[in-house]
Amino acid sequence: MENQTVGIRELKQNPSDIIARAANGERFDVLSNGKPVGVVIQRKGAIRRRWVSAEVLATIAGAQGDGALSAWADDIRAQRELDVDPIVDPWGASNLPESGKP
Predict the structure, then answer these.
(1) What is the CATH architecture of 4-40?
(2) Which of 18, 53, 64, 102 could form a disulfide with 68 if both were Cys (CB 3.0 to 4.6 A apart)?
(3) pLDDT at residue 32 greater than cutoff 60
């Protein structure tokens, strides 16, 4: 498949379209004043996740040997006990003024 070209102006005006097409395998050379300055391509490989599912966590812990998951949980509990600045809900009832309104 031949590379498509896209100017910066068009990329700014239609980013969703260009990204969707790149996700489907098209490749774009980005031009600024007619000169190539970048490339938009399909990402290869796994996408990083911010959260890990319980199944994935269990698999990781299982790969590290028996008791790895419980040791990890114990480490987190110990860290929470040492935490001098606990996480609080800023909108929780205990943080509202006496009127009950923020």
Answers:
(1) 3-Layer(aba) Sandwich (3.40)
(2) 64
(3) yes
